[in-house]
Amino acid sequence: MSTSAEHVSDASTAKEPELKRVLGPKLLLLFIVGDILGAGVYAVTGTMAGTVGGIVWLPFLLAFIVATMTAFSYLELVTQYPQAAGAALYAHKAFGVHFVTFLVAFAVVCSGITSAATSANVLAQNFFGGLVVNGWMEMPGQGMLTAVALGFMLLLALINLRGVGESVKFNVVLTLIEVAALCIVIGVGFYAMAQGTGNLGEVFVFTDYQDKGLFLAVTAATSIAFFAMVGFEDSVNMVEETQNPERIFPRTMLTGLGIAVIFYMLVAVSVVTVLSPTELEGIREAEGAALLEVVHKGSPDFPIDQIFPFLAVFAVANTALINMLMASRLIYGMARQGVLPRPLGKVLPVRCTPWAGIAFSTVLAVGLILYVASDPDSNVVANLSGTTAFLLLCVFAVVNLACLVLRRKRDVNRKVFFTSPGPLPAVAGVLCLFLAGPWVGRDIIQYQIAGALMAIGIVLWFVTWLINRRTNTPTGDLTEIEG
């Protein structure tokens, strides 16, 4: 990075007003819980149950442990560098290599796109599931599900183009709806147990549906479950809007993760007590409709199953919108900083929304959905959610390594607000890489999708670098793109 670019960046930063610190511990907690809960549990529970059977709660617990270890590294870094740039900032501070910083930032972009594509397919499953439960139609084939998923992505693009006023108060409402939907699943499970129709003993039964053995099956399910635990890392981008973040963040982030895993484990218990082992194996192929099946079977005396699918649709839609907002804004930011082609930073003159970034991210998401759905034997939701988890596991491994590197660079006179215990970042980094590997049974298509997306970013980065070099244009500071 050139010295002139740093001076320009410093000067522009000095002129900009600071963000208003409106988040106290309660609002920050709701933001974190709302970010973690959402499409994840709807997308992966069926696949996990069809992998390990009754002990589906165990992979959720293990994924929580790995996520919490990584959260400790995030907390050490965010309290040392309370700036809204997340993983890209930490990679830049630790390694100082512009290309590495770009790879981390673009991997985050790709994870948002694949997560939104996952949510679109889960939404289609639950939307049609609601129509079926209400007796309005029969379940359509994959072609119709894909068409609705594509239509939803285009609708998100239009909403994004129009401009979305994000507010913490609105997030509170959405979080409460997400929590209410999961409470329905949990309530149905406990109701079934109270009526004697639920089998609580199934919770401790491992069923080797795929002949992998206990260790490999649980490991595979844990790598799948990780998709449901991500979201906590997004909260570091709110640090400049948080009151006294050095003191508030550690307790609040860990509390949010704890609340999420309690919900997930209770949902898992409800799933295995309501559904039979045969039904558990069957819901593996139900993709994002597993929880709908639980509510439908477990509440024959109440019409709650007619409402639940549409609550799920709302929760999943919110997750997708947030992901596409994040991805399009990051693309816009990288284009404005001269890291991606500058035309990707174009903004609508009236709406002031980044139309080029929105179009680019939407095209990638649509292409992903069509590509994965083109294989009739492919589990669309499992492969897209698995790709998201893989990308973020790689990012988390870099963050854990950055935590260790920055410890050595820490100013001894600077106050330390939070430190991850001893070698925990190293352990977390190794576990993240382990869960990202092919030995967990990850479908090769997930590596192909991730590789293709990153290759697109690298090609665009290289082209932009050549243009900047030829025109003698300085490259901006990547650590400012999420601010």
From TrEMBL:
Mark the transmembrane ranges: 27-49, 55-75, 95-123, 143-161, 173-194, 214-232, 253-275, 307-332, 353-374, 380-404, 416-439, 445-467
Q: Which GO terms describe its cellular component?
A: plasma membrane
Q: Which InterPro entries match?
A: AA/rel_permease1, APC_superfamily
Q: Where in the cell is it found?
A: Cell membrane
Q: What Pfam family does this protein match (any one)?
A: AA_permease_2
Q: Does the keyword Lipid biosynthesis apply?
A: no
- What's one GO MF term for it? transmembrane transporter activity
Keyword list (alphabetical) reads: Cell membrane, Membrane, Transmembrane, Transmembrane helix
Q: How does it sit in the membrane?
A: Multi-pass membrane protein
Record-given protein name:
Amino acid permease
